[in-house]
Specification:
Layout lengths: L2 H14 L12 H10 L5 H11 L15 H14 L8 E5 L30 H13 L6 E5 L15 E2 L13 E9 L2 E6 L18 E4 L3 H10 L6 E3 L2 H9 L5 E5 H11 L3 E6 L8 E7 L4 H15 L1 H10 L11
Parallel strand pairs: 1-2, 1-3, 6-7, 6-8
Antiparallel strand pairs: 4-10, 5-8, 5-9
Length: 338
């Protein structure tokens, strides 16, 4: 059961426990009452119900209106889960892509989790793996209280209930996506790049105009595909793939002239996956800075906690250290001019 699901269960139990006649909570009154007061910031609907049922009394929270740290935010979550008698069963459930691709996820496969075919995210290795474990630790979750579930890329930001607390798989924030899910602060600023192979007609391209006749590809639903369609605007229809692996296969087999991906992925593709691969160049930024963020179900109270954890990581240098460890080798390619 996810943290968010446990909090919703708590809200429902608190709602059922209101006695409109005498303003008593039927089951475990002191524990449920204290938890409801401590958790008012996360569940204002519970507080408003209690006030309506017991007017004209006035209630005061014993937590600040704004959390001061990720640990403080997470403590309120834990209080609510204890009150719901379910914290022992609660995990931080994180969704990511399958396969979990390098350099975002590393470490290879394990016997314990054979369902992950390329990298087991439970190892906490790779850039996003390390970010996940660091955020979880600051929220009070030990490594054995984190579980991972596979999810399709576009499914990460479709509307509706989620079977995870947050998803991260190189998901860029976009206003349109934010209509369906909530996003955290950014944890990585994105630079798009063009990958080709030696001998390709675009391998020496230095401007977007020189890409007009190219056959380019990118995974479906990605900002990489948006860049091809909206900024490069080649004469030939771009090739759209279900996942990055299929795009890399077509590049190796000469079915496309190039693929557009983020810069760390471009570096990994040319260093490991495609022996003749070349990072043609970094693509120019369009509009505001693109960044990767975690996606949450709309209204999740965990967004604020995760944001505080990310702010702490930025402030104390932890996020920079994770970047240096896992993404330091990203190619420093020339800039392709628009």
């Amino acid at each position: 059961m996810t943290v968010l699901a446990m909090l919703e269960r708590y809200r429902q139990e608190a709602e059922r426990s209101v006695d409109k006649a005498g303003c008593w909570l039927r089951a475990s009154p002191r524990r449920a009452w204290g938890a409801a007061m401590r958790g008012w910031t996360l569940w204002p609907v519970v507080l408003s119900m209690l006030v309506a049922a017991c007017a004209p009394q006035e209630y005061h929270a014993d937590t600040p209106a704004h959390y001061q740290s990720a640990a403080g935010c997470a403590q309120v979550n834990r209080d609510n889960l204890y009150a719901a008698a379910g914290y022992a069963n609660a995990y931080l459930t994180v969704a990511t892509g399958e396969p979990a691709s390098p350099p975002w996820w590393e470490g290879g496969t394990t016997h314990e989790h054979p369902e992950w075919r390329l990298n087991d995210p439970c190892l906490g290795r790779g850039f996003e793996g390390a970010v996940t474990f660091e955020v979880a630790e600051r929220l009070g979750f030990s490594e054995d209280r984190i579980r991972f579930v596979p999810i399709g890329f576009t499914e990460s930001f479709t509307p509706g209930p989620k079977g995870f607390d947050f998803a991260l798989q190189q998901i860029s924030y976009l206003p349109g996506r934010a209509e369906s899910v909530d996003f955290s602060e950014g944890y990585y600023d994105v630079q798009q790049a063009l990958v080709s192979v030696r001998g390709s007609p675009i391998v020496d391209a230095t401007t977007l105009e020189q890409l007009k006749d190219a056959t380019l590809g990118a995974p479906t639903g990605t900002t990489s595909l948006r860049f091809i369609e909206g900024t490069i605007q080649p004469d030939r229809q771009p090739v759209v793939y279900d996942d990055l692996g299929a795009a890399v296969d077509d590049l190796k087999n000469g079915r496309v002239d190039g693929i557009v991906v983020d810069l760390p992925s471009a570096s990994f593709i040319t260093d490991v996956q495609v022996p003749q691969g070349v990072v043609v160049g970094r693509l120019p930024s369009v509009g505001s800075q693109e960044y990767l963020a975690m996606a949450f179900e709309k209204g999740s109270p965990l967004v604020e906690c995760v944001n505080l954890a990310l702010q702490e990581m930025k402030g104390d240098g932890s996020l920079d250290a994770i970047h240096r460890k896992w993404l330091e080798g990203a190619a420093d390619a020339p800039l392709i001019r628009d």
